[in-house]
Amino acid sequence: MRFELTILGSSSALPTSERNLTAHVLNVYERFFLIDCGEGTQMQLRRTRIKFGRINHIFISHIHGDHIYGLFGLLSSLNLLDRSEDLHIYAHEPLRKGIRYIIRNYEGKFNYAIRFHPLDEEQQQKIYEDLRVEVYSFPLKHKIPSAGFLFLEKPRELNIRAGYVKKYDIPVSKIHEIKNGADYRTQQGEHIPNHRLTEPPYKQRSYAFCSDTAYWEDIVPYIQGADLLYHEATFADEHKDQAEYTLHSTAREAGRIARKAEVAKLIIGHFSARYKEEQITALVNEAREEFGETLPAHDGMVYSIEPYRRDHH
Amino acid sequence: MRFELTILGSSSALPTSERNLTAHVLNVYERFFLIDCGEGTQMQLRRTRIKFGRINHIFISHIHGDHIYGLFGLLSSLNLLDRSEDLHIYAHEPLRKGIRYIIRNYEGKFNYAIRFHPLDEEQQQKIYEDLRVEVYSFPLKHKIPSAGFLFLEKPRELNIRAGYVKKYDIPVSKIHEIKNGADYRTQQGEHIPNHRLTEPPYKQRSYAFCSDTAYWEDIVPYIQGADLLYHEATFADEHKDQAEYTLHSTAREAGRIARKAEVAKLIIGHFSARYKEEQITALVNEAREEFGETLPAHDGMVYSIEPYRRDHH
Q1: ipTM
Q2: Does residue A271 belong to any structural domain of this protein?
Q3: Which pLDDT tens digit goes with each residue over A252-289?
Q4: How many domains does chain B have?
Q5: Which domain holds residue B189?
């Protein structure tokens, strides 16, 4: 039942000795979703002991080098590791051609197929769904088309309280109904209302990834109430003009988005290499003036969202 | 007067948590020559504190992904760092187009020019020369055209023995002649033979890089007597058939080349990811049965060749 983010790289365009280029892995029930694939992603997967073979879906926010140059090596390694299952890549259309170019010129034929899914530049779109999770893309604001992603756990059934199946001798045939909200009548005719039999389901957990982007309130509805938001915070207040010019965000702006979207927790990252590690605290403090629940990203960071229940109504 | 190798990556096609993909830096008198540029090279440069801006020449052995996928990110970072000087790349012709493709599609215009120098696939060739060093390429034997590189320090002048300029009152105008072998006649008419005035020059130091390649004795003349040879050793004896099939070398074969070429020291690397760190010792031992002076490469390894004098004849 894991819903767990691992940050592989938290630098902006220039890596530092401490920070690799952008890549995240979200583990949803042991499905591993890779988000962005900056240079060095495969080495960071090795270091964090995430098996390459578990990754079936790669989401690319935008086609800037620092978010994609790890893709070619990873695709090559998957082939060397005898992958045979399809690999799905969700990215803006122009990357399709680039991947094809690299493979044709430097790799040769792969043992597995790449399924390319172009992202909509203009509007929110459901791009993936399975039994456990839905993934949405939505437009950010950057120099080139850039997408945010929302990973939303699917609603789960009610849980029957431990011991009640035995206590009331509930037949297996009724369990599905009860989990979906039905009351139960015992063989003795006693009516047991559903809320006594069941516990509320876990809340749908969610993770929103927003990088690269300028400060842009239009994204708020897409990420409203997320359990965890990663928002880029390339610059400190003192370089606000740089942020505006390059269509990046300041840490304070990331905090403001988190506050407006009423998320539970904010992680900021994609820090400019100009800031030394000891200066990152200043960025966090600027974000916290807007939104207290802010953490700085670091490479190898793991953030787990535990299952939690809604209050019973 | 440094002549110093730093190994940034020592893995073969698949990186491990300990080993990055192939890249070496040779520091010759504070000129930094980059040899191969596997994914992660720029991060490894950060970790080893080698300034990107000091690299003006990049030598690429062959166009397999694990030797080139760090190039795109490095070129991009050099641009972000406001490089303006030309950057020289020495590689087989097809890479020229690939670099152009990536820059055009994902980078836009660079502030600096890339000068591409195609390598000769067929024969030894002097590809670079400055006041301190000459660089030669020569063909290796691999699935695609692959080149070895020899870095050869230029011969230096004789050194005048400390104190002799003062003792014999040698005028500055004569010093250049003496350093080039002339005897000296003092104002009192005494004849001082050159060998009393001077010490022999330092021997020309040399570094040979041979990766990727099958065992191939044809390379021996090109690397004869090198102070340091890096030779790939992808496989152990037990996988000799794999080495033959993939046109790579075993550690033992690397040792045999070192012995035949009478080099002073051998470093083996480019180890298959199938070998765990504790198994590398076995590869080293196999190489040492052919050539005692063998060391295993590891990422971050620095090997300095100190200046040393020839015997006076």
Answers
A1: 0.89
A2: yes
A3: 999 999 999 999 999 999 999 999 999 999 999 999 99
A4: 2
A5: 159-199
Chain B: residue whose CA lies nearest to A76: B65
Q: Domain check: are A85 and A210 in the same one?
A: yes
A–B interface: beta-carbon pairs under 8 A: 94
CA gap A289, A216 in Å, rounded: 18
Asked whether residue A164 falls in the same domain as residue A85, the answer is no
Give dist(CA B225, CA B205) in Å, integer.
Answer: 10
Q: Among this protein's residues, is A66 annotated catalytic?
A: yes
Q: Nearest Cβ partner of B65 from A64, A72, A97? A: A72
Upper half-sphere CA count for residue A40 (Cβ side, 13 Å)? 32
H helices of chain B, in order, are: 41-47, 65-68, 71-80, 94-102, 164-167, 172-179, 194-197, 220-223, 240-246, 251-261, 280-288
Placement of tokens 């060093």 in the chain: B133
Residue B219 near residue B140 (C-beta atoms within 8 A): yes
User: A207-220, pLDDT tens digit by residue?
Assistant: 999 999 999 999 99
- pLDDT tens for B174-187 read 998 998 889 999 98
| Same domain for A103 and A248 | yes
Distance of CA B13 to the CA centre of its chain: 20
> From the candidates A21, A39, A42, A272, which should be mutated to test the interface with B, based on the most B CB atoms within 10 A?
A39
- The three-class DSSP label of residue B99 is helix
Task: Find the residue in A nearest to B70 (Cα).
Answer: A39
Residues of A within 8 A of B101 (CB-CB) are 98, 101
